[in-house]
Design a protein that fits this description.
With 379 residues, the chain is an alpha/beta fold. It is 29% helix and 24% strand. Strands 1, 12, 15, 16, 17, 18, 19 and 20 form an eight-stranded mixed beta sheet that branches. It starts with 5 loop residues before the first strand and ends with a strand. Bound molecules: pyridoxal-5'-phosphate. The site of pyridoxal-5'-phosphate has 12 residues, from helix 9.
């Protein structure tokens, strides 16, 4: 046995998903969101593959630390990096990192803009602005658009490298959800104001996965140049059920573990911490995965499948182990040491796992801890 639990990452599926996005919008430039360690898949290998095999040239991180790691580890490759949230621009040592390592901070308040405009070293540095069109998280206030435009002009900055907005409800219908409609309208007004004031917008983007899936904010039907997919790169759809989309992704990852031990139980026998009673006579398979791997106690009750048998996670998940209860017919078939696939064995299994546990795939992916090695495969 060479591994305990592992995340098997299929790079061909990653390529497939990028190509699906290109089919949805042949004209869009893709800025791949690879924050949070590439949504748990491993930021460096995913970015390297995206650059060398798929011709992707722009990436989005959340923190300056992530961006620096990307720049340092892929130093020989040509690409742009944006830092979206934790930019810490006004710390002196960070300013140096942005300037010397060609990392672009996404500016989301006026004081950060002032800092860029008033610091001589940033005189020729690309300006990327993110507006809060209704998500009410980070972002410049649309009411400040005239003020911002004035500041740019006063400093002789007649172009913006990238103008960004982000949706709060992209999993819902882009044409029906009133916040989506409001956000779209506001973003259109902001872009118009900049352009009417003589500021060139070199790049603009509004679309994350749910928006792309609904074909909104694409160069084909708007004046935007870029899209910023995250989740869909890794396979799952982010649309709520019933919202029509145009994306059939392939799940990039497969979470595998193995069975440490099996034993037969009688109805009422208790297992694990808190002594959870078994509902029937059956078989327990103990998996070599637990919350020390990022596999949560909240997954208790979810169904998992092995050799055609349906099992259920029973009782409390421990730090290193998970009990799965199978019907007694499984006793002759399920054995210790077998590889056990938690998700990624068949279409839709991750989605069912997420629906049952009410945990979004974003969180399931990002939760996986470094104890789970990521291994990369090509078909
Ligand atoms: C600004 C911004 N753009 C794009 C994305 C990608 O979103 P998704 O993973 O839903 O595609 C995110 C992710 O949170 C984001 O914060």
């Amino acid at each position: 046995m060479k591994f305990r639990s592992r995340l098997v990452v299929n790079l061909d599926h990653f390529a497939y998903n990028i190509n699906q996005i290109r089919k949805i919008s042949p004209k869009a430039q893709i800025l791949c969101m690879i924050k949070a360690d590439g949504y748990g898949h491993g930021m460096i290998p995913m970015a390297r593959y995206a650059i060398t095999e798929m011709g992707i040239r722009e990436f989005g991180c959340a923190t300056i630390g992530e961006a620096l790691k990307l720049r340092e580890e892929l130093n020989e490759l040509e690409f742009d990096i944006y830092v979206f949230s934790d930019i810490q621009l006004e710390l002196l040592e960070n300013a140096d990192i942005y300037l010397k390592r060609r990392i672009i901070p996404v500016i989301s308040n006026v004081s950060e803009l002032d800092y860029i405009l008033h610091t001589p070293e940033f005189r020729h540095f690309p300006i990327c602005l993110k507006f809060n069109t209704g998500m009410n998280r980070l972002g410049l206030d649309p009411n400040d658009t005239p003020l911002i435009v004035n500041k740019l002009k006063q400093h002789g900055r007649n172009s913006v490298h990238h103008l960004i907005s982000h949706y709060a409800n992209a999993s819902s219908d882009m044409n029906a959800h009133e916040v989506n409609v409001l956000q779209r309208t506001r973003f259109g007004e902001i872009k118009k104001f900049f352009r009417d004031s003589g500021i060139t917008l070199e790049r603009t983007s509004q679309s994350n996965s749910g928006t792309i899936e609904q074909k909104v904010g694409l160069p084909e039907n708007s004046d935007d140049t870029h899209v910023r997919p995250g989740l869909m790169l890794y396979g799952p759809s982010s649309l709520n059920s019933g919202v029509p989309g145009n994306f059939e992704g392939k799940l990039v990852s497969k979470l595998e573990t193995y069975i440490l031990r099996t034993f037969e139980v009688k109805k009422g026998d208790v297992v694990g911490y808190n002594s959870t009673p078994c509902p029937e006579d059956g078989l327990i398979a103990i998996l070599a995965i637990g919350y020390g791997d990022g596999f949560f106690n909240r997954y208790s009750g979810a169904h998992l499948y092995h050799k055609g048998f349906e099992g259920v996670i029973i009782g409390r998940v421990s730090m290193d182990m998970t009990h799965v209860f199978f019907p007694k017919e499984a006793s002759d078939h399920i054995r210790a040491h077998e590889i056990f696939t938690i998700w990624g064995a068949k279409d839709g299994d991750l989605q069912s796992f997420c629906s049952e546990t009410k945990i979004i795939p974003y969180e399931v992916f990002c939760a996986l801890l470094p104890r789970v090695p990521r291994v990369y495969r090509l078909n």
